[in-house]
């Protein structure tokens, strides 16, 4: 997966589109712009098997990367973010209710460092989340183009798409069967993201706002009807805050 989910969802876009993952991401921003983020990802046994088969047969690079993400090593994750102002404070891999599950928690200095950390181990481009100065005494949490240099392994091969006529019938049949498994798991799709800001919310594009918390969610029903814009845009009061906003 060669895209960064805007702070929180950048990682599972391909999984989201196939409806095969449960992912919860909760971010809390403090008065100085630092904060914490907790992330939980899980896959059912059926979906894990399908993803592994698709990746092993070279049929879907995105699915293979999702499988690799679920099998990440704590030491590799720590190594990838060691030069950033981000601390990995929780790392746990387990089986919960028959689902392969990864739980992560980070402490970060600012949203740019957090976005860079997610980019390092999830892949991505040059966008992340930032706190911007709204120019009226308020702040805005939104996506921002940081123009980071590309990651060393981010050059993508240009591969001609294999036409239906040229595709091996056995391979095509197997791919269709595996995709059927993933589509059969559509009902388990459960993506949620919450973000708590340190000032009173003036405006938020989240479907649900509770106090200073904005909540976004995607499931099988609202995804089919157009889904939800998961790119946060929150305007909040800057009163009493000491945040160094991105220019």
List the helices and strands and how they pair.
Elements: H1 13-18, E1 22-29, E2 35-44, H2 45-56, H3 61-70, H4 74-80, E3 86-96, E4 99-108, H5 111-122, E5 127-133, E6 138-145, H6 169-184, E7 190-196, E8 201-204, E9 208-210, E10 213-219, H7 220-224, E11 234-237
Parallel strand pairs: 1-7
Antiparallel strand pairs: 1-2, 2-4, 3-4, 5-6, 6-11, 7-10, 8-11, 9-10
Secondary structure tally, helices: 7
Which outline best applies?
A: globular
The biggest beta sheet reads: 7 strands, mixed
Query: What are the low-pLDDT stretches, counting only 5+ consecutive residues below 50?
Result: 1-19, 155-162
Helix content: 25-40%
End-to-end CA span? 29 Å
Q: Rg to the nearest angstrom?
A: 19 Å
Biggest β-sheet: strands ordered side by side in the sheet: 3-4-2-1-7-10-9
**What is the domain tally?**
1
How confident is the prediction overall: mean pLDDT?
77
User: How much of the polypeptide forms β-strand, as a percent range?
Assistant: 25-35%
The run of helices and strands is: HEEHHHEEHEEHEEEEHE
Number of DSSP strand runs:
11
The structure class reads alpha+beta
Query: Oligomer, anyone?
Result: single chain
Give a description of the structure.
The protein contains seven helices and eleven strands. 28% of the residues lie in helices and 32% in strands. The chain has one domain. The longest helix has 16 residues. It starts with 12 loop residues before the first helix and ends in a 10-residue tail after the last strand. A seven-stranded mixed sheet has the order 3-4-2-1-7-10-9. The protein has a four-stranded antiparallel sheet with strand order 5-6-11-8. It has 247 residues and is α+β, with helices and mostly antiparallel strands.
């Amino acid at each position: 997966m060669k895209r960064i989910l805007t702070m929180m969802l950048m990682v599972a876009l391909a999984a989201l589109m196939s409806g095969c993952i449960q992912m919860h991401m909760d971010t809390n921003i403090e008065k100085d712009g630092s904060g914490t983020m907790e992330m939980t990802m899980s896959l059912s046994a059926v979906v894990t098997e399908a993803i592994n088969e698709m990746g092993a047969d070279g049929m879907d690079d995105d699915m293979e990367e999702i499988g690799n993400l679920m099998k990440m090593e704590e030491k590799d994750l720590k190594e990838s973010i060691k030069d950033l102002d981000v601390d990995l404070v929780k790392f746990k891999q387990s089986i919960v209710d028959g689902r392969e599950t990864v739980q992560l928690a980070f402490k970060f200095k600012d949203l740019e460092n957090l976005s860079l950390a997610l980019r390092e181990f999830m892949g991505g481009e040059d966008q992340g989340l930032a706190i911007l100065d709204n120019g009226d005494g308020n702040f805005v949490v939104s996506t921002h183009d940081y123009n980071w240099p590309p990651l060393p392994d981010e050059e993508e091969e240009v591969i001609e798409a294999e036409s239906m006529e040229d595709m091996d019938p056995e391979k095509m049949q197997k791919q269709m069967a595996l995709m059927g498994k993933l589509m059969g798991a559509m009902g388990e799709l459960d993506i949620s993201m919450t973000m708590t800001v340190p000032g009173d919310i003036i405006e938020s594009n989240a479907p649900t706002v509770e106090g200073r918390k904005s909540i976004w969610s995607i499931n099988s029903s609202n995804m089919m009807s157009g889904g939800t814009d998961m790119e946060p845009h929150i305007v909040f009061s800057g009163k009493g805050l000491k945040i160094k906003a991105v220019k």
